[in-house]
Amino acid sequence: MADDSRAIKYFIYARKSTESEDRQVLSLASQIDALEEIAKRDGLHVVGKMSESKSAKQPGREVYGDMINKIKQDKAQGILCWKLDRLARNPIDGGEIAWLIQQGIIKHIKTPSKDYFPTDNVMLMSVEFGMANQFIIDLKANTKRGLMAKVKSGWCPCVSKPGYMGDRFSSKGEKKIMSDPERFPLLEKAFDLMLSGTCSPPQILEKLNNEWGYRTPIKKRVGGKPLSKSSIYRILTDPFYYGKFEYPMGSGNWYDGKHETMITEGEYWRIQELLGRKGKPRPKKHKFAFTGQIRCGECGSMITAEEKFKINKGNGLIHHYTYYRCTKKKLSSCSQKTISVHELEKQIDEHLQRVSIPEDFKDWAVKWLKEINGKEIEDRTVVYKSQQAAYNDAQRQLDNLTQMRLRELLTDEEYLQQKDKLLKQRERFAERLRDTEQRADSWCDQVEKTFEFSCHARHWFMNGDLIAKKAILASLGSDFTLKDRKLNINLQKPFEIMEKGFADMRLKQVWLEPATIGLFDKKNTSPARGDVFWGGIRESNP
After folding, report:
1. Angstrom distance (rounded) from CA 108 to CA 5
2. Which option is the CATH number for 164-275: 3.40.50.720, 3.60.150.10, 3.90.1750.20, 2.60.40.1120?
3. How many C-alpha atoms does 529 have within 13 Å on its Cβ side?
4. Which end of the chain is more exposed for a tag (fewer CB within 10 A), N or C?
5. Helix or strand holding residue 296 (H, E)
6. CA–CA dist 160, 167 (Å, integer)
7. For residues 371 and 84, which has the higher predicted lDDT (pLDDT)?
């Protein structure tokens, strides 16, 4: 038998699946090292080494197929492998191996624990191949059973979607879907931006990647890259983000997920309307400035728009009209009438007019704003230093407390009580520091932008394109409703204060023109009247 083995040419074949079926199997390199030792020990003539990372549960492995073809060409007559199931885990490949060894084409299959020859009972080999195949069948059934149990408990068995991450600390089968603390808030902002109707998906993608610094999670060989264009559309159209998932894909079976959602179901369907079609983004045939922003004041349905064309029979001229109307999706009997785009834009302009300021007042206000900001910076620096000192003192007390515990000057109970108190104190000071920093960075810039908008918004609106008009309306306020052909707007806080302040001044026949009336003391460049109005503007832009 030994002499026959030395006359046979062998292929060393190693395989390790990328799936769970081979979790306990040696690595490819370890298999080859062990098989080379056996060949050296037994004096076997090895003419080639072959390895692949692929499951054997289905036929069609390239390396295995190449080896079998070479054996059929008599380039080798034997196989060295770790176990018989390395060669086959399906009945087609298993039957082929059994047939080749029965016909004497394969003269010897050697594993570390067993030898197979043409003279052996082929039934034993068939049983081993059958056991390997049954293992795959059982594994598949158990996997499906486990996945369905996970699905019914509310957890989607999928690769972590953008904004989410796997629970690394739970045992297998009990892993939950956690919110990614770094990316979840950024995608929430992206959804909010889409719901505002002021940005298209490519514009949102630009902000995500280049302004907010979104990068995909870093894994072994991938990640750390900006979000792709296809990904932003997948995110915006995926029901997973409002708490639903389909399993298996394409089955029509939907389940409620237990993961934290980014949007509500109503917001999801509104986004689909903005994209143009439920679940499938496509460009709209007609573009209108205010669709997706305004709701019907009677039934709560969205306001849509449509175009109409009429031919003048007298002169043949074609007249073009655009109307806005209720979609009546929530109440088919809604009684609200249509409104022309000209009337709607006129009402928006009237709202803008009520918060509009002259150019000279804007220039004066910005100048005065910068002066008081300089004084506020000085005051804020003093406050910040005081807050920083208080924070450092709390940290120093924590450090001292730890030293006292190490020297056993405090009991465990005393240590924990004082530590909890100091931690809360330190966090309180840290929060105040953050508030001071945020106020320093934002309030002056926001107030200046508010005045710039109030000064030029009417001009921008009258001369802007559809995108500009949509953005201006969104900047003016929120919760837009249309009822009895009247547009109602919940103004942003600064504009609400300005509208009320200007109305009071008009009632008293006073207008904000410091050059022509004595509303402001020009010598001191500080407000002589209207202090409540000015203070309100500052408070609304912290």
Report:
1. 7
2. 3.90.1750.20
3. 13
4. N
5. strand 294-296
6. 10
7. 84
State the amino acid at position 82 in one-letter form: W
Residue 453 has pLDDT above 80, yes or no: yes
| Residues 352, 458 contacting (CB under 8 angstroms) | yes
At residue 185's C-alpha, the angle toward residues 180 and 191, to 5°, is 120
| Separation between Cα atoms, residue 151 and residue 164, nearest integer Å | 17
Q: pTM of the predicted model, to two decimals?
A: 0.39
CA distance between the termini of the chain: 91
Q: Identify the CATH homologous superfamily for domain 2-146.
A: Resolvase, N-terminal catalytic domain (3.40.50.1390)
Percentage of residues in the chain with pLDDT exceeding 70?
A: 74
Tokens of 407: 């020297």
Q: Going by DSSP bridges, is the β-strand pair 526-527/520-521 parallel, antiparallel, or unpaired? A: antiparallel
Question: What does the alpha-carbon distance between residue 138 and residue 520 come to, in Å, rounded to a whole number?
Answer: 86
The residue type of 445 is D
How many Cβ atoms sit within 10 Å of the Cβ of residue 466? 12
Judge contact between 114 and 82, C-beta under 8 A. no
> Which pLDDT belongs to residue 371?
65
pLDDT at 71: 93
So what's the pLDDT on residue 475? 86
**pLDDT value for 434:** 67
Distance, in Å, from the CA atom of 386 to the CA atom of 436, rounded to the nearest integer, reads 11
Paired strand residues for 482: 296, 487
In the block, residue with structure tokens 């000279």: 360
For the chain, the structural domain boundaries read: 2-146, 164-275, 294-348
Whole-angstrom distance, CA of residue 38 vs CA of residue 184: 54
